[in-house]
Amino acid sequence: MPLLLREIATGDDTVATREPVRPTPDLSREQARAVRRLSTQELCDIVAELLHVSPVDEAMNFFDLGASSLDVVRLCSALEAMCGQRVDIGLIYESADLADITRHVVNDAT
Asked: Looking at the domain assignment, is residue 12 inside a domain?
């Protein structure tokens, strides 16, 4: 973690010295590490909204639904925001169906 520096006046001559200051985290370590689990239905809902298609089933392939490479990036971003963990773009390309994506995301969290 980078250190932040702040100037502090010392004595009457106001000579500035630098003292490292660590930022105070907003969350405890346990809270920061907490990763939200993703259900297959939640993923189907995200994909339906992202691609403007309905209905979406867990057995469907993301690309067969009309997804492009830009949609992959958008899906990864949505999953990261929802689950609190980084989702590898390659995972979407390698997954056979939406259920497979969900399994990978859940397994990567453990």
From this structure: no
Per DSSP, 24 falls in state P
pLDDT tens digits, one per residue of 4-20:
444 444 455 555 555 55
pLDDT at site 12: 52
SS3 label, residue 5: strand
Percent of the chain with pLDDT over 70: 65
Q: Which residues constitute the domain of residue 99?
A: 27-109
Which band of pLDDT confidence, cut at 50, 70 and 90, is reported for residue 65? very high
Q: What is the CATH number of the domain that holds 33?
A: 1.10.1200.10
CA dihedral 22, 26, 29, 31 (to 10 degrees): -170
Q: In sequence order, which residues have a C-beta less than 8 Å from that of residue 99 and are 6 or more positions away?
A: 40, 58, 59
Could you give the number of structural domains in the chain? 1
Q: Any residues with CB less than 8 A from the CB of 94 and at least 6 apart, and which?
A: none
